[in-house]
Amino acid sequence: MIEMKKVGKTYPNGVQALKDINIHIDKEEFVYVVGPSGAGKTSIIKLIIREVVPTEGTIHVNGTNLGDLTKKQIPYLRRKIGVVFQDFKLFPKLSVFENIAFALEVTEEPPDRIKPRVMEVLDLVKLKNKTRHKPRELSGGEQQRVAMARAVVNRPAILIADEPTGNLDPETAWSIMGTLEDINHRGTTVVMATHNSHIVNHLKKRVIAIDDGNVLRDEWRGAYSYEA
Amino acid sequence: MKRNTLARHVREGIKNIGRNGWMSFAAISAVTIMLFVVGVFALVILNMNNLVSAVEDDVEIRAFLESDTDAEEQEEVMQDIAAANAVENVSYLDRDEGLDQFIDSLGSEGAVYESIRDENPLNDALVIEASTPEHTEALATAVNDYTAIETVEYGESILTQLFTVTNYLRVIGAALIIGLLFSSIFLISNTIKLTIISRKDEIEIMKLVGAKNSFVRFPFFIEGLLLGVIGALIPVASLMIGYFYLYRFLDVQIPFITMVEPFPLVWQLALILLGISIVVGVWGSQMSVRKFLKV
Ligand SMILES: Nc1ncnc2c1ncn2[C@@H]1O[C@H](COP(=O)(O)OP(=O)(O)OP(=O)(O)O)[C@@H](O)[C@H]1O
Ligand SMILES: [Mg+2]
C-alpha cells in the first residue's frame, strides 16, 4: 500500500528532514509513527500525498510510483488518501458542513448524496450540533474532529492522521481512537503520527519509531519509545 | 464538467464575493472609479474631436459677387472656380437666402433682423468648400482676384491656429485615453490579485484535499467576472444617463455646441466599458490563482 525506499528529503533551506527511510506498510494495517518533535513525521506524510517531492529514493502508494505521477494525476492520488493535518487545514470562511462537503464536491459527487454522507461522518465525530459553525467558533478538539470527518468522508483507501489526539482530553482521544479502529476494520489502511505514549502503549499496534530522519525501530505491537 | 459541478462553481463564485466582503468591496470600487474616469475622458475627448471636425467642416469661403454682375458673368466665374483642383464644391447663394441663413444662425435673437428684410445689405454670393480645410486660405486669395468678386469672407487667422490645436488635441486625447486605460487595467487587476493572494492558504488546502486545478479556478473565474460586471454597473449607468441629459440640455441651451448624438454612442460606450471590466476581472483573477496552484 505504502512503500518508501531509501527516501531522503532535504528542504530548499538546507534542512535534511529525512535521511534514509525504508518503510513498507500493507493494506489494512494500522501503524503508529512515533518520534520526537522535528523527527520527520509530518515530512513523511507530506511525501505520501505528494505535497513535497523526495530528494532521494522512491515512494509507491497504492501501486503507483509517485515519481511517475503527472500533475493531472495528483488530485486523484490525494482523493484516495484522507489526511487529518497536524494544523487541521480547515477553510476558515466555510462552515463545518461546507468544510467536510468540500472533499466530496471535488470528486463531483452528486449533490443529493453529499448531505447524507456529511451528516453521517459528523455523527461519527459527534459534531452534528455544530454544522453551521465556522472553524474559529470551535475549540481545538472540535476543529480536529472536523478535520477527521473531512479526511474520512470520501471513504479513502488510506487514512493518515497527524497527531489526531493532540488537542483532545483523554476521553475524546479514546473515542477518536475507537473511530480510527473502526475505519481500519472496514478495510482502510491507517497511519497515525503521534506523541501520545499512553495510547500507543495501551492500544497495541505496529510502531515505527523515527528520530532525526531515520527509522530507529519498526516493531509489531511495539511500545512508545524512540530510543534505540 | 458535470452540470451539477458547474452550478456549484457559480454558486461558490457568488458566495465568495460575500465571504470576502471588504476585499470584494475594494475591487468593485476600483473598477467603478477607474471605469468612470475612463468613460468621462472618452466622452470628453470624443466630443472635443467632434466639435473640432464640425468647425473644420464648416470652414467655407463666401465670395460676395459685385452687385452689378449679370447672370452670365456669375455663371462663368462659378464654372471657373469649380474647375480648380483645390475646390470641392461651389454653390450659388442668392442674397435673400443668405439673409435667411444669417437670421437662422442667430436663433431666437435673429428676429430683430426680420425688419431689415426689405433693405437686405447682402449681395449674392458663391459658397466655396475647399477640398481640404488647409487649402482654404490660398483658395480665398485666388478667388478674391476675380473682378466679379467684391469681397471674400472666411475664418481667416483662427483657421491656421485651429488646425495646429486640433491636431495636438487629437494626439493628446488618444495618448491620454490609452494611458488611462492601461493604468486602470493595472489597478483593477492588482486589486483583484490582492483579494486572491489573501486566500493563498485556502487555495493550497483545496489542492491538498484533492481538487483539480480547474475545480479551484472556476469559482474564481465566476468571481472575477462578477466583480467586473458589478463594478461596471454604476459608472456605465450614470455615464449613459448623464450623457443623455447633458446632450438634451446643451441642445436647447447652447445650440451652437453640437455634441455627438447620444444614440448609439452611449450603448457603444457601455459595451466597451463592460467588456473591459469583465476581461480585466477575469484575467486578473485567473492570473493570480495560477500562482498558487503549484501545490
Ligand atoms: N517546509 C519546510 N522547510 C524547511 N524545513 C522544514 C520544512 N518542514 C519541516 N522542516 C524541518 O524538517 C524537520 C522535520 O519536520 P517535521 O515537521 O517532519 O517534524 P515532525 O516529526 O512532524 O515534528 P512534530 O512532532 O513537531 O510535528 C524539522 O527540523 C523541520 O524544521
Ligand atoms: Mg509534525
TrEMBL record, chain A:
MF terms in GO: ATP binding; ATP hydrolysis activity; transmembrane transporter activity
Pfam families: ABC_tran
One of the GO BP terms on file: cell division
Domain ABC transporter residues, every copy: 2-225
Domain of life: Bacteria
InterPro entries associated with the record: AAA+_ATPase (IPR003593), ABC_transporter-like_ATP-bd (IPR003439), ABC_transporter-like_CS (IPR017871), ABC_transpr_LolD-like (IPR015854), Cell_div_FtsE (IPR005286), P-loop_NTPase (IPR027417)
Gene3D superfamilies (alphabetical): P-loop containing nucleotide triphosphate hydrolases
Membrane topology: Peripheral membrane protein
Subcellular location: Cell membrane
GO cellular component, one term: plasma membrane
PROSITE patterns documented for this protein: ABC_TRANSPORTER_1, ABC_TRANSPORTER_2
Keyword Transport: yes
Keywords: ATP-binding, Cell cycle, Cell division, Cell membrane, Membrane, Nucleotide-binding, Transport
Major place of residence: membrane
Entry annotated with the keyword Ribonucleoprotein: no
Annotated family: Belongs to the ABC transporter superfamily.
Subunit (UniProt): Homodimer. Forms a membrane-associated complex with FtsX.
Function: Part of the ABC transporter FtsEX involved in cellular division.
Descriptive protein name: Cell division ATP-binding protein FtsE
Lineage start: Bacteria, Bacillati, Bacillota, Bacilli, Bacillales
Automatic annotation (TrEMBL), chain B:
Principal subcellular localisation of the protein: membrane
Function: Part of the ABC transporter FtsEX involved in asymmetric cellular division facilitating the initiation of sporulation.
Keywords: Cell cycle, Cell division, Cell membrane, Membrane, Transmembrane, Transmembrane helix
Membrane topology category: Multi-pass membrane protein
The family this protein is said to belong to: Belongs to the ABC-4 integral membrane protein family. FtsX subfamily.
Intracellular or extracellular location(s): Cell membrane
Gene Ontology cellular component terms for the protein in this record: plasma membrane
Domain ABC3 transporter permease C-terminal: 176-293
Transmembrane regions listed in the UniProt entry: 21-46, 171-197, 218-245, 265-284
Keyword Cell cycle: yes
Domain FtsX extracellular as annotated: residue spans: 59-152
PANTHER family cross-referenced by the UniProt entry: CELL DIVISION PROTEIN FTSX
InterPro entries documented for this protein: ABC3_permease_C, FtsX, FtsX_ECD, FtsX_firmicutes-type
Protein name per Swiss-Prot or TrEMBL: Cell division protein FtsX
GO biological process: cell division
